[in-house]
Amino acid sequence: MDVGEVFLLxxxxxxxxxxxxxxxxxxxxxxxxxxxxxxxxxxxxTAALLTLLYYFFARDFSVQYVFEYSDxxxxxxxxxxxLWAGREGSLLLWAWYLVIxxxxxxxxxxxxxxxxxxxxxxxSTLVVIFFNVLLLTSSNPFVRLDFRPPNGIGLNPLLRTPExxxxxxxIFLGYAxxxxxxxxxxxxxxxxxxxIKLSRKYLIVSWAFLSIGILLGAWWAYKTLGWGGxxxxxxxxxxxxxxxxxxxxLLHGMIVEERKRGLKLxxxxxxxxxxxxxxxxxxxxRSGIISSVHAFGQNPEAHAYLALIALATAVGITVWALRRxxxxxxxxxxxxxxxxxxxxxxxxxxxxxxxGTLAPLFIPNAxxxxxxxxxxxxxxxxxxxxxxxxxxxxxWRADREKFIRYSKYSAVVxxxxxxxxxxxxxxxxxxxxxxxxxxxxxxHVQDLRIVDIANRRKIGGYVAHIGLIFLFIGVMGAWLYxxxxxxxxxxxxxxxxxxxxxxxxxxxxxxxxxxxFCIISKVExxxxxxxxxxxxxxxxFYKLMRQDRVVSSVEIISQPFRDLYIAMGGVSKDGSRxxxxxxxxxxxxxxxxxxxxxxxxxxxxxxxSRRAMKRAE
Length: 617
Description:
By secondary structure, the protein is an alpha+beta fold. Helix content is 62%, strand content 12%.
């Protein structure tokens, strides 16, 4: 047995002990041995993680996982990122994250005799046990080959980017954190206690890291895959979006429950659904049952994930049935109903994405393309942004005068902007989008001006909403008004006319090192005779055991309201001409700005208010 497997086995035994002792803590004081067991589990998982990392740096290619995802030339950064490049390493990282979250939950409580925390830790530790069992069986990262190869297959060249070095661990961190609100919701409801205040920070942290992971994945797709887009509605992309949508709905529902004691049942259900979707995301990614450019391949443990989803749902329903009287409450105010409307839209968006993602499982030969998603998600996004704008103009007291005062200015500005866009471009959808953009944005800005600076949660929420508004208009521009020209054939020293643009192939260069061979083209881009920029798109041929590793490195000229995007598709055998794909992507900068504002809003919401800091002093 490998030393890494010994650490995994010790972690499993420690986790079993911890879960059992936490259950005992519900009725009696067993917190000291519970802490020891949990810290032991964390220590052994950390040791297993470091052992696998050591094998990567030692180039121990007799370890199958190291052989499959590294080679002797791999740089330090990508040697580290190879740790989570496959299913075994990613699951190990996820389990480690979850134990860290459990440890934080345990030691962050002022009252270490809290029965809700005890039961929640028992539940979340059961999830750790589930991962430990998989790591020791079907997803063992320490399996060895019968021989020691001189070199490894190598990391997929598409993963050799800074974005892909950090995208998976941030996604997994978000996934792992979603377990805590689920466990707290089950435990607190069982004891008829409130779980919202205790779980909010864990939900925001997890939601923020999931947002960062999705942003990194979108940016990677945009600058790496060479098709001019940042979101292809691939099943694995969708899988990470699903829990983000339900977690976003839950964050809004928590506000209503805390202030008005409403939406208790919906919030409880969302905590369970979000956890289920996190497990489903792993199932979709790792089972290979749905065709995806990201899938890790066929895996026999898919049934285990489905069983975990079924078990979590069954436990949630059982606790609800036992404590139905705990969910009493009603919605009375206008603002509460508007927030519920926002939540419904987010859930409808989740349902349409889920249906499109899983359709191939239930409908033979089903092919769901981006047109399905565009037709459904853009109207839902539009409705969401409109409701956000109305919500910003209505406070909890439903002040009619405030609503009229805010809305008349934002509506007039939005109408003027929309008319201007229509008269300039004769684009009806763009005009409507711009009008909605300004209406919602200005309502938020007006209300943000009078918000108490100490109210970090409200400020953070508004910053995130403003980010979503920018994301909305950026997505609308990039998806609906993108210009694509492919293939574009350009002879050496000559130009090709594409729309109002002229692409001039000035020259070629060749570079080679021990890892790769590059063909670099120099292309000047003109619009109406004016130089927009000089680009260097290239083809990269990697020298790996797998012979089909050719990557096109794109070049992007970013301008305030559009990107000029060019990718090299190939070169003729005699080198006399090259083939390119050229895209004009409007407003894509708003996508990145909006995404960063959404993340910033989550960070601001986590910051302690001045009142809280004064109380702490």
